[in-house]
Amino acid sequence: MLGFLPDDPVIIAIVLILLGLIFFTYLLLRRTVLEFRDGMEGR
């Protein structure tokens, strides 16, 4: 495997879950801001 990745599958799973949560939060915030902007413009 790659040198910088740990061999422990638990650590890999935790990192993947954290990355998924960060991505989901980004999409949620982006959608909220866009909907708010459209609502303020009266669309």
Automatic annotation (TrEMBL):
Protein's UniProt keywords contain Transmembrane: yes
Protein name (database record): Uncharacterized protein
Transmembrane parts of this sequence: 12-29
Keywords annotated in UniProt: Membrane, Transmembrane, Transmembrane helix
Source organism, top-level taxon: Archaea
